[in-house]
Design brief:
The protein is α/β, with parallel strands linked by helices and 222 residues long. Helix content is 28%, strand content 30%. The protein has a single domain, classed as 3-Layer(aba) Sandwich (Rossmann fold). The strands form two sheets. It has an eight-stranded mixed sheet, sandwiched between helices. A three-stranded antiparallel sheet has the order 1-2-3, with no helix packed on it. A hairpin with a 6-residue loop joins strand 10 and strand 11. Helix 1 packs across helix 3, helix 3 packs across helix 5 and helix 6 crosses helix 7.
C-alpha cells in the first residue's frame, strides 16, 4: 500500500495512506492533536497526574510522536511505556518525521526521538532515567494484559477504515488491561465507539476535540 509523508496544518508531518484516505495523525495538526488528546486529556488528567509512577499502553505506536510528547511532558513521573504496533514504520519514513524540529523548546527532543526508534522490539529499554520503553510488534486482538496499566492511548486507525479495531471485543481487552480507575483516551467520538466502551463497563465522557474535530472520548475503568 502506498504511503506518503504529508505536512499538516501546524507544520508537523504525518504518514498518509492514499488508498484508504487515512493518515496517522490529523491533517489539522499532528502535534496539536497528540498534545490535546493524549497529553492534556490523558497524562495531565488529575487521576493520572497525581501519580508518581505511571504505566502507559499505546495502541498504535506508529511514528512515536505520542511517546516522544510523553517523555517531554511527563518529567515529574516515572513512566513505564508499552507501545503496541503490528506494522512498524520504516527506517526511511522515520528519517522524514521532523517532530524534533517542531519541538525546539525541548532541547532533548531529537535525542529521545532517535532512542525511541532505535530501541529493539520486544526489549525493555531505558530512554531516560525516568522513562522505560517496551515496543511490542503485535496485533491488537492478541493483547492479553490484565490490570497492568494506568493509562491507555488508543490511537488506532479510524473506525471508517478498520472497524474491527473499535469493537466490544477490543475494548474488553482494553478494560482488562487497565488497573482500577485506569483511563483510556482516544481521538474518536463516534457513537458506536462510545457504546462499545460502555458495554464492557467503561464510564465514558465526551470532551472537546483537538483542532478540526468537535469531540473526543475519555473512558474510566470503574
Amino acid at each position: 500500500m502506498e504511503r506518503k509523508i504529508i505536512r499538516t496544518a501546524d507544520g508537523s508531518v504525518t504518514i498518509h495512506l492514499p488508498e484508504l484516505d487515512e493518515q496517522y495523525h490529523s491533517k489539522h495538526g499532528a502535534i496539536q492533536e497528540a498534545m490535546h488528546v493524549y497529553i492534556e486529556m490523558g497524562l495531565r488528567f488529575e487521576n493520572i497526574n497525581q501519580k508518581s509512577s505511571i504505566s502507559i499502553l499505546e495502541i498504535g505506536f506508529g511514528t512515536g510522536l505520542n511517546a516522544l510528547l510523553t517523555i517531554l511532558n511527563g518529567s515529574e513521573h516515572a513512566i513505564q511505556y508499552t507501545g503496541v504496533e503490528a506494522y512498524p514504520v520504516s527506517e526511511e519514513e522515520i528519517k522524514s518525521l521532523d517532530y524534533p524540529d517542531n519541538l525546539t523548546n525541548f532541547k532533548d527532543a531529537r535525542n529521545y526521538f532517535e532512542k525511541l526508534h532505535n530501541a529493539e522490539w520486544g526489549q525493555q529499554t531505558a530512554i531516560s532515567s525516568i522513562f522505560d520503553l517496551k515496543k511490542r510488534k503485535q496485533d491488537f486482538k492478541d493483547i492479553q494484559d490484565i490490570n497492568a496499566f494506568d493509562l491507555i492511548y488508543f490511537d488506532a486507525f479510524g473506525a471508517r477504515v478498520q472497524p474491527e479495531l473499535w469493537t466490544v471485543a477490543i475494548f474488553e481487552k482494553m478494560y482488562n488491561a487497565l488497573k482500577k480507575e485506569g483511563l483510556l483516551v482516544t481521538y474518536a467520538a463516534k457513537g458506536s465507539v462510545r457504546r462499545a466502551m460502555q458495554e464492557v463497563g467503561f464510564k465514558v465522557e465526551r470532551l472537546p476535540g483537538p483542532p478540526g474535530k468537535r469531540e473526543m472520548l475519555r473512558a474510566v475503568k470503574n
